[in-house]
Amino acid sequence: MNVDGEFGPLEYAGGLWVVGDPDRAHVRLTPRGISHWADGAETVELRWPRFMSFGLETQVSRRGDSKRLIRVAKIAANLAGAVYVGSQGSRAAAMLRHPYEEWSADFDHHVRKYTRREITMADALLRHTIAAGKGERLGDPAWVAAAVSAMRGVPSARRARAAVESMLRAG
Questions:
Q1: Sign, CA torsion 48/52/45/20
Q2: Is residue 19 a contact partner of residue 92, using CB atoms and an 8 Å limit?
Q3: Which residues contact 170 (CB under 8 A, 6 or more apart)?
Q4: Assign residue 145 a region: left if phi > 0, alpha if psi is -120 to 50, beta otherwise?
Q5: 55-70 confidence digits (pLDDT tens)
Q6: DSSP β-ladder status, 26-29 and 16-20
Q7: How many CB atoms neighbour CB 51 within 10 A?
């Protein structure tokens, strides 16, 4: 398997594809499902059949949020008697079934910057694969490597869904 291991927030690390910095908080795409890791430990594992939808929210760089906005959020949290917990604007979110519930997990942005195109294409790959009911494909590192390679060649975000659907049909 020839892997170019970085595609926006997606990275091939330790034999699996992960969303986020694998040395910090991240989401692992495993054969069984998605697992969220924080502080060096797995916090939750969700099986692929539970996922109805999925999406990524992230910025181009770790510093995507303004320092002033972060300060205001910290002050507001303090005034409300809460602790500010920042994710540097990076989050995976999903709608799950059995039981129906919304789920989200913060992940740490890599030190490197992502291009807007990479963010859009990585999100499209994950979103459309799960929407098609084929989430288990995301747990196959070879399939994800081939899909990432193919997504690099997709000329525009408008064609991302068709590209993912074509890869899913091809196997």
A1: positive
A2: yes
A3: none
A4: alpha
A5: 998 876 655 555 665 6
A6: antiparallel
A7: 23
Nearest to 125 by CA among 20, 31, 10: 10
Q: Is 3 exposed, middle or buried (0-12, 13-18, 19+ CB in 10 A)?
A: middle
Global pTM value:
0.83
pLDDT tens-digit map of 30-48: 999 999 999 999 999 999 9
85-100 pLDDT tens trace: 554 568 899 999 999 9
Residues near 20 by beta carbon (within 8 Å), at least 6 away in sequence: 9, 11, 26, 27, 90, 107, 108, 109, 110
- Provide φ and ψ at 22, rounded to 5°: -65, -15
